[in-house]
Amino acid sequence: MAKKNIKSKKDIQDMKSKQAQAQATEQAQDIENAVEAKDKEIEDLKAQLEKEKNQYLFLMADFENFRKRVLKEKADMLKYGSESAMRDLLPVVDDFERAIDAMSKGGDVDSLKEGVDLIYSKFVKYLERNKVVPIESTGKDFDDNLHEAITTFPAPDESMRGKVIDTVTKGYMIDDKVLRHAKVVVGQ
Q1: Cα–Cα distance for residue pair 89/124, rounded to 1 Å
Q2: What DSSP string describes 44-94?
Q3: DSSP string for 29-47
Q4: Angle (deg, nearest 10), helices 83-104 and 109-129
Q5: Contacts of 139 (CB under 8 A, 6+ apart)
Q6: Is residue 183 within 8 Å of 148, Cβ to Cβ?
Q7: Given strand 147-153, what is the order of strands in its sheet?
Q8: What are phi and psi of 14, to 5 degrees?
Q9: Taking a C-beta distance cutoff of 8 angstroms, is the pair 163, 128 a contact?
């Protein structure tokens, strides 16, 4: 019987050894599966990172192209911005040339005056189309935002004190911005 017990103990040890081996194999398989899963996850993350990196590079390239285009448009605007204004002034220059030509031929003074008046009115209309308007000054209260006092003069009466007595150079505004301050004489 002792031999049977020994055999049984040996069988038990073999069985335990086989169970331990089976468990070790199962654990090794689980670890291998976990490693494969992590490797797949790493590969997926690498692929996602590469995709996002490419998207970022395309976005940066698009932004750089946009920036260059805006700079070029801005430079062109500065370079050619006055083109329209200058083109609209050319007919006025043509009229002045005709007036100068007529004066050199010794034309009638009244017709020359009429021609200059027409040129002036055409030029004023051009300014109005471009929202340039004169600043009304004479008789108005002095406003240092609109006027530049070049001198003061004793006011003829108390009501003219602090008011513009005379406008030496007319001022102009474009929309709500002063283009040129009116040079005025202020009553004191």
Answers
A1: 11
A2: HHHHHHHHHHHHHHHHHHHHHHHHHHHHHHHHHHHHHTTHHHHHHHHHHHH
A3: HHHHHHHHHHHHHHHHHHH
A4: 180
A5: 163, 164
A6: yes
A7: 147-153, 182-187, 164-169
A8: -65, -40
A9: no
96 neighbors 119 (Cβ within 8 angstroms) = yes
Q: How far apart are CA 149 and CA 187, in angstroms?
A: 10
User: Are 125 and 115 in contact, with CB atoms under 8 Å apart?
Assistant: no
**Each residue's pLDDT expressed in tens, for the chain with a length of 188 residues:** 445 555 677 777 888 888 888 888 888 898 999 999 999 999 999 999 999 999 999 999 999 999 999 999 999 888 887 787 888 888 888 988 888 888 888 767 888 888 888 899 998 998 998 899 999 998 899 998 999 999 988 888 888 888 999 999 999 999 889 999 999 999 98
* 87: CB partners within 8 A, 6+ apart: none
Please name the amino acid found at residue 156: P
* Gap between the Cα atoms of 184 and 150, Å rounded: 6
Q: Tell me, what amino acid is at 21?
A: Q
